[in-house]
Design a protein that fits this description.
2 copies of one chain form a homodimer. With 387 residues, chain A is an alpha/beta fold. Chain A has 11 helices and 16 strands. In chain A, a hairpin with a 4-residue loop joins strand 11 (308-310) and strand 12 (315-317).
Chain lengths: 387, 387
């Protein structure tokens, strides 16, 4: 399921040499281990120390709608959005979750519970984040029903559109497509709306916006996400979901996320220290290497992204998504083909699309990325890939 | 929602003086803050230090069915059960969850998904843990359906019985009551089967057993629970639920739980240091004070528990449950009555029972417990309580 399949511990570096040979490379999940090197360079700067007697209660602030949200994390989230300029936080409730997956389900629960008519249709434009299908289906809820592609959706009645922008898997900036205001709600998933992935062209200002710690800094193991929610009734229902589902969110993770987000904010204008400068250069360099291989052959396709002025960096920059939406120029099950080459990716069919596309994580460790580029270079021309 | 309602931060001690006056005392939730004093005495013994670059991946051990379970936590769990002798861990899969609430829902999902006929009936004998009703109902799943009291359950078809032992709310040791082997499954919730609450009379050895870190040591804020699961297919389905629901469990919390559980194991035979010796004395003393007040009046009732030989302590001990199941000797809405006295409790109706009973947390801070005993003493006689 990860990096080298025969490596037991994901954080181990002992597998570097092995991977250079012919082990299976897993670029299916988006495990954001690429950024670990930055945090290693930071050494003790974000070390957290938690004594045994601390963080014992279920409760963080009983006066807050989200009673399990640590007040310092709330401040850190607001400060970071303020510094980056990617989202409005004023006049909003912040709801913390065990990752943004749990929050997305809390939002589906909240919006559909508050709908007079049920089940509420859930849609997302193709290609969509494959996990949405599972999140909207697995418990077979009577509150909502997965209805697939938002572009072909024509059912009457209430619906919720999931809008991921920039999109997972293809990195495109997105807007809702259904737009039936009278009975539609939108969940805006901004997991990747950070300047190392995409130019920050506007301060997002929607009713329900999701963010995740994992994809900003790479701390996926902490399972911290947050929602910015305008309507108190929606926020309350989300908190109800999180209360029944897991009685809140790990305080240790909240404490660590607070420390790390505060460090991001503090250093974001110091180029030599800024995580976002580091992350932008890292992602840009990986995309240049990927494009070079793809463009030097005739087998593969990649989306093109317009350059745009980034309000955060104060200059025109390119887009370097967390996933590559790799296509094959002929009809072919690209996922199976790459699997033969010992590269695991997520098939386009899981994203509601054609199997000639795959989603490839661009956030692996350097070594896995090197091997991927190496293997892709060996199959970049169609004439060499005949069955 | 906690201790003193006008105190903002649960872990603050600044509210001690206020509570001695006439603030609202919240004994509704079972926030286990009683044990914090033990951990303060332990000072730095269980301090965890987490550098910024650590615990970043989603993955803990990709060779394990529960791929997000930290291997050191698995060892710590097995060692503690071995030292206490309360549950068999051999030939079982350990599944970690964001508290045992999430695991209970994962178990409902797993057992019902694997059932040919759906929805599967969910039952528990009255009085039951009120949260089970919410857990089995809130997403309106087609997989399972809450059917209430196990004792009056007479529907045909598959069912799952939730057996909490010792029981929440009334502290009684329990066995399944439906016992239709051909189509019944049992989830054994052993949240309170630890020697500070109840004599350890046998090593539990069931197909699906739930435990929670919160109620052992008081670390509710960590949101760590675990399931011991015999059947690999059930374990896999539970992991599927946890993967979709929250993509695993906080690594920071797992790391801290590992440190603390290891300390429990290491010191459990050293009387001066043992958490269980401390916890047993603490709970016993609180129960003695509570019984003294109740028995000195004629208004209230409490369950009686037989003494029993505890295999862990090696002697006959009494039972001191985490909740008191307080009854009133006449028909009366006891929860409302106590609320007038500024003591919040959980009404017996929420546990499928009569309103003349309430569940009272015995795990509050000392100060809140003192105020509770003081207020109860002022209403212990019926003749003073006429409306």
């Amino acid at each position: 399921m990860i990096g080298c399949e025969n490596s037991k511990k994901s954080d181990s570096d002992s597998n570097k040499e092995k991977c250079l040979s012919d082990d299976v490379i897993n670029l299916d999940q988006g495990d954001p281990t690429a950024f670990q090197e930055y945090w290693m360079k930071m050494k003790d700067r974000c070390t957290v120390v938690i004594p045994g007697w601390d963080l014992m209660s279920y409760f963080s602030d009983t006066t807050n709608v989200c009673w399990f949200l640590e007040p310092e994390l709330e401040k850190a989230i607001k400060a970071l959005h303020g510094a980056i300029g990617n989202a409005a936080t004023e006049e909003r409730y912040i709801v913390v979750g065990t990752g943004s997956s749990q929050l997305c389900q809390a939002a589906l629960f909240a919006l559909s519970s508050l709908s007079e008519v049920k089940p509420v249709s859930i849609v997302a434009a193709v290609p969509y984040y494959s996990t949405y299908v599972e999140e909207a289906s697995y418990v077979q809820s009577l509150l909502y029903k997965w209805e697939g592609d938002a572009r072909t959706f024509d059912k009457n009645g209430p619906y919720i559109e999931l809008v991921t922008s920039p999109n997972n898997p293809d990195g495109i900036m997105r807007e809702p497509v259904v737009n039936r205001r009278e009975d539609g709600k939108v969940i805006h998933d901004f997991a990747y709306y950070w300047p190392h992935y995409t130019p920050i062209t506007r301060r997002q200002d929607h009713d329900l916006m999701l963010f995740t710690f994992s994809k900003i800094t790479g701390h996926a193991g902490s399972r911290i996400g947050w929602a910015l929610v305008k309507d108190i009734e929606v926020a309350k229902k989300m908190v109800q979901y999180l209360t029944i589902n897991s009685i809140g969110v790990s305080k240790e993770s909240q404490t660590r996320a607070t420390t790390i987000l505060n460090e991001l904010t503090k250093t974001c204008r110091t180029q030599s220290e800024s995580f976002f400068d580091y992350g932008y250069e890292k992602m840009k360099s990986r995309w240049e290497r990927l494009r070079e291989v793809v463009e030097s052959g005739d087998a593969f396709t990649l989306p093109n992204y317009p350059q745009a002025f980034c309000n955060f960096f104060g200059k025109t920059i390119s887009t370097s998504p967390a996933f590559a939406w790799l296509g094959y120029k002929e009809e072919r099950d690209l996922g199976s083909f790459l699997k033969e080459k010992k590269v695991l990716t997520r098939g386009g069919d899981r994203c509601g699309c054609n199997k000639k596309y795959v989603r490839v994580s661009m956030l692996s460790r350097d070594n896995d990325f090197d091997v991927f580029i190496h293997r892709l270079a060996s199959i970049k021309d169609r004439k060499c890939n005949q069955p």
